Amino acid sequence: MGTSASDLHPTPTAIEWDHALIERYNVAGPRYTSYPTAVQFTETWQASDYQAALAASNTQAQPLSLYFHIPFCTTVCFYCGCNKLATKDTSLAAPYVDYLKQEMHLLTQWVDPQRPVEQLHWGGGTPTFLSHPQMQDLMHSTREHFNLRDDDQGDYSIEIDPREVDQTGLALLRHLGFNRVSLGVQDLDPQVQKAVNRIQPYEMTRDVLQSCRDLGFRSLNIDLIYGLPLQTLASFRQTLEQIIELNPDRLSIFNYAHLPERFKPQRRIRAEDLPSAPEKLAILEYSIKRLLEAGYVYIGMDHFARPDDTLAMAQREGWMHRNFQGYTTHANCDLLALGASSISQVGATYAQNHHKREAYESRIAAGEFATLRGLTLSAEDQLRRSLINQLICHFELDGDAFAAEHGIDFAEHFAAELGYLKQHQADGLLIRQGNKLQVTPAGRLLIRSICMVFDAYLDHSALQKAYSRII
């Protein structure tokens, strides 16, 4: 049977839900915010390696992306697996901000501070845990150390908890230069919120979102989670309708992975309260179909965006990228990450800071980088990183163009992988025409499975322990 042009280039938003294929391919696997994944980072890779990478990056003079990890929350959400400290003691933030400022000073000894900062992100934890003076102090110091844009054209974003911010705080964030906001919501059903210890009425989220619009934030993202305790398809339908009414520019619907042996707060969630596997998949299936119906573009995995959002534009035009912050429009930036557990990506290297806040602070206080581990990518690593990024962002790969760019024989170099993909082809997840690969609408939901074929490091016997399920 022949392959038509429409088969090779299906509608960008097209998604086909196939229960049998999802059941077959829904195994645990990486999210590919990096390749190689963090599992491959080694503690033999140290601060001196990071310093060398920073110095070398100056010769390329690429723009910078800055990430600040603020690991504090006033209350603990039982589903959370983030590196954070739940505390009411706001005094802990003051010394931490000072350590971030010291880390910035260390970085500018190695990286040219005149390189423009195209992207800035405060994540956590809850960055709005910081007091207003602390926020001002941190941003002022960032401007002193780095070349932040002053034309409001950079992508400067912050994660906020609607329970922890007011109109004055939002106005301050806008004044400091933030123009993008990500709101944690997770679910609007009161019973679900009580079960995960996150009471956040719809009206609170609505009012914060409207305030952000009134203040001129140009992109608003909302995070939801499916698979939480007491969730049902009926209850999540109501949540989704309310979220669609709020009309965020971007929307993420994450899969809750119940791993109480790894994340202590999850031990407060009763396994018997979790939706069944079929119910959980039904929630996701409905959510995807409803969001597409509402006009959102399926970006990939668990991300959606309005067609006029820059993320959707970047995907259409072929310049979307993926890194530790998820899908991004800044492929050309070196990512400098500050704070406990944060991961930098500079050229062909990854560097991760100490996970424990105390260890991070101790190293910085001693005037040293807080690097715990990292990795320098081999030429083969870089080749596969580029290939996986292309597939996970754009659902297609022109093997001939890729081969010309990287100086390889595509069919020969990836002979084993192309052989493994025959099963994906037979199952209708992928179309291959010569060296051109096109992920089908049925394959887009399972893109991680296709990318895993090109992962040279995967230990399939250990997947269940290291990663969450694909869906």
Automatic annotation (TrEMBL):
S-adenosyl-L-methionine 2 binds at residues 79-81, 125-126, 186, 198, 223, 257. One of its GO terms (molecular function) is 4 iron, 4 sulfur cluster binding. It catalyses: coproporphyrinogen III + 2 S-adenosyl-L-methionine = protoporphyrinogen IX + 2 5'-deoxyadenosine + 2 L-methionine + 2 CO2. Its cofactor is [4Fe-4S] cluster. It is found in: Cytoplasm. SMART domains: Elp3. GO terms for cellular component: cytoplasm. InterPro entries: Coprogen_oxidase_HemN (IPR004558), Coproporphyrinogen-III_oxidase (IPR034505), Elp3/MiaA/NifB-like_rSAM (IPR006638), HemN_C (IPR010723), rSAM (IPR007197), rSAM_sf (IPR058240). This is Coproporphyrinogen-III oxidase.
